């Protein structure tokens, strides 16, 4: 299993790319839960975020042509013309576009993933200035929910 994940990703134009990204999503979600059980919440948050990002990359690949016809702004058209990955800055836009194509519930999960990404970087923040989570327990709930959402969608 590890050897498969350590290989470079196939070219996005290959069918095996979808399989590789789905496997990545599942493995990252499982690692998130394992880290959380061991008390490593910040790393668990990062793994949950990576799992969601891998799932979005899969959907980008599967829906690319439909997304290109849906693009409204010049920026969206330019990005989707050469899209081979999902930059963190495009996750919300992509989620909203995918929802327009019928993938319900992605935007809310992407918001949780973004919040977990901030938590990974800043940890719990009682003032919620740098992280939306005042305590580890709050982040743990979203880690579990996001991991479950990844598994459900795969």
How would you portray this structure in words?
With 154 residues, the protein is mostly helical. It has a single domain, classed as Four Helix Bundle (Hemerythrin (Met), subunit A) (Up-down Bundle). It contains seven helices and no strands. It starts with a helix and ends with a helix.
Mind sketching the topology for me?
Blueprint: H1 2-6, H2 15-37, H3 41-70, H4 74-82, H5 91-100, H6 106-122, H7 136-153
Helix pairs in contact: 2-3, 2-7, 3-5, 3-6, 3-7, 5-6, 6-7
Q: Write down the Rg.
A: 16 Å
Runs with pLDDT <50, length 5+?
none
CATH class division? Mainly Alpha
CATH domain topology: Four Helix Bundle (Hemerythrin (Met), subunit A)
- In helices, the fraction of residues equals over 70%
Q: Count the beta strands.
A: 0
**What is the element string, with H for helices and E for strands?**
HHHHHHH
Could you say how many structural domains there are in total? 1
Number of helices: 7
Sketch the major β-sheet: none
What is the average per-residue confidence, as pLDDT, rounded to a whole number? 92
**N-C termini distance:** 18 Å
Strand content: under 5%
Shape: globular
CATH architecture tag? Up-down Bundle
Which structural class matches the secondary elements? mainly alpha
């Amino acid at each position: 299993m590890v050897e498969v994940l350590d290989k470079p990703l196939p070219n996005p134009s290959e069918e095996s790319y979808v399989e590789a990204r789905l496997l990545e999503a599942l493995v990252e979600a499982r690692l998130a839960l394992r880290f959380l059980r061991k008390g490593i919440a910040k790393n668990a948050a990062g793994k949950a975020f990576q799992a969601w990002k891998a799932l979005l990359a899969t959907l980008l690949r599967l829906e690319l042509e439909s997304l290109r016809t849906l693009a409204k702004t010049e920026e969206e058209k330019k990005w989707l013309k050469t899209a081979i990955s999902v930059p963190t800055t495009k996750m919300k836009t992509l989620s909203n576009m995918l929802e327009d194509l019928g993938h319900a519930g992605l935007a809310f999960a992407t918001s949780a993933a973004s919040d977990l990404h901030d938590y990974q970087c800043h940890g719990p923040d009682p003032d919620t200035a740098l992280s939306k989570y005042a305590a580890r327990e709050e982040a743990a709930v979203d880690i579990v929910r996001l991991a479950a959402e990844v598994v459900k969608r795969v």
